[in-house]
Amino acid sequence: xxxxxxxxxxxxxxxxxxxxxxxxxxxxxxxxxxxxxxxxxxxxxxxxxxxxxxxxxxxxxxxxxxxxxxxxxxxxxxxxxxxxxxxxxxxxxxxxxxxxxxxxxxxxxxxxxxxxxxxxxxxxxxxxxxxxxxxxxxxxxxxxxxxxxxxxxxxxxxxxxxxxxxxxxxxxxxxxxxxxxxxxxxxxxxxxxxxxxxxxxxxxxxxxxxxxxxxxxxxxxxxxxxxxxxxxxxxxxxxxxxxxxxxxxxxxxxxxxxxxxxxxxxxxxxx
Length: 271
Ligand code: URA
What we know:
The chain is an alpha/beta fold. The chain has helices at 7-20, 65-77, 82-91, 125-130, 137-148, 173-190, 200-207, 213-216, 240-245, 250-264; strands at residues 109-110, 116-120, 155-159, 194-198, 221-224, 231-237.
């Protein structure tokens, strides 16, 4: 009988086997509430007063989504220009993403009076670095598509959230809800004729639906403001990052852009 291996050697060999197989994280069968266990400090509550003029200490964002949404709504309503709105967003501490590694707020780029507002998902690493939405590989793809459709000079481009989610993960519905009053105020101030909703995370959040992007894309929907007072035509389409991974889907995205330009250039009927 071969001599029994030492427990350390068995553990080492087992770990090497798992590492080889690509396992680089260990999870338990049951979730552990580390906040309750005192291993992680609970997030501090949001500060109600937020002022760009008097920057206080940076505070951890809080879990009370409705308080953060109410504060976002209050700040957004007080902004009477896109510049003022951008400043309000930058000073807002209610979105947890601001405290999860983002280096700055990323708001919008393009023509503030454009007839088309493009709404993507969230800033990525390049956007976080440069402070502008859609400037990385996906952004370059978006720019090429807009240029091919003759839309380069006719767009304002933003996202559903204004801070980069860690690891470029999809923003959560709560993070999107907290930023939504600012998105809505941007729509009210820019007064576009229509919206292009880029990717599932954008389309689902703006249209308040659980339908997937492959079902939603290419079909006009009505976007409505939270109070229902404003409605705009909104067209969901595929995200350029998806097109980079699935070039065969470019045809569908191109069809969507043609659908969009046809409506954008359609002469308005006298009312
Ligand atoms: N993807 C997005 O959805 N938005 C950006 O700004 C960049 C990449």
